[in-house]
Amino acid sequence: MSRPVRIAVAQYEPHVGDLSHNLSQAVLWASAAADKGANLIVLPELASSGYVFGDEGEAQRAAEDPDDGPTVRALREVCEMHGCHIVAGINERDGDCRHNSSVLIGASGRMATYRKLHLYYDEQSWFQPGDELPIVDLPFGRVGMIICFDLWFPEPARALALAGAEIIAVPTNWVASFKRTVWDDRGYCQGDYVAMATAAQNGVVMACADRVGVERGVTFIGASIIVGADGWPVSGPASKDGEELLVADVDLDSVEQARRRTPRNHLHTDRRPDAYHAAAGRAAPATGAHA
Fold it and tell me: How far apart, in whole angstroms, are the C-alpha atoms of residue 79 and residue 44?
């Protein structure tokens, strides 16, 4: 490996409103991953607060500052001790509003904040959407972030890849709600397949950290996964309902190799944005057709 990076995703169970438990669990799982030599560690969506808020007051009490909140402070210490970087989902307090955010943390503290663009179902009651896609240059490579439902929209991952991202960290809270099939007979959920397709289409490594458990009647479905830039899993999927740490070694030189699909084809430079428009109207009649 010429540009090796060890990636870990932690699948565990935050508790809504139990901030001290959530903080201790974030530190526990991040430290366990760092002890295994992980350079980049991804924790679930809203790991700081839990997910299914009961009312506005509960959502507000669980919000925290992205620079000096308890989650960033505690995880900064893990990064400082182990020389790693962590992406964690937080309930971000931003003046008079909140965001479903992920923060990228290093030894010096918060390096970037991504605010979820596409809010899923009742998230729209508690959060405001973001409006940008940050990329961070880390010692081992370039990292971007999206969150959960963002994965179902091709544009964010494509924009990050075209801007140079080699790894996309995806804190997520995949739920069983509104799904005809939750897992297939191999234990894959739809999110796993979407992450695999996203990796293959863009030539990026995808690191998806889901959670497990049941929170106020909402079931979270596990199946966290790390996908190589060629679109095939390198670790996972994790179990449906168990806490689990996935670790994978990836060579980031494989990113450019995956983008060059053949000696004459490249996923990025072969794009034809000038031709990507649909012309609506009646189909032309086939040659020789009669009225």
Answer: 17
* Cα separation, 4 vs 140, whole angstroms: 7
Using an 8 Å Cβ cutoff, are 116 and 148 in contact?
A: yes
The Cβ of residue 189 has, within 10 Å, a number of other Cβ atoms equal to: 24
Nearest Cα residue to 191 out of 159, 233, 229, 162: 233
Q: What is the pLDDT of residues 78-136, one digit of tens each?
A: 999 999 999 999 999 999 899 999 999 999 999 999 999 999 999 999 999 999 999 99
Distance CA 280, CA 23 (A): 53
Positions annotated as catalytic residues are 45, 116, 148
- pLDDT (tens digit per residue) in 145-185: 999 999 999 999 999 999 999 999 999 999 999 999 999 99
Backbone conformation region of residue 109, classed left if phi is above 0, alpha if psi is from -120 to 50, else beta: left
CA-based nearest residue to 91, from 118, 113, 121, 111: 113
Question: Which numeric CATH code is attached to 4-267?
Answer: 3.60.110.10
Which three-class secondary structure state does DSSP give residue 280?
coil
pLDDT at position 288 is: 60
Compute the radius of gyration of the chain from its Cα atoms. 20
Quick check: pTM over 0.85?
A: yes
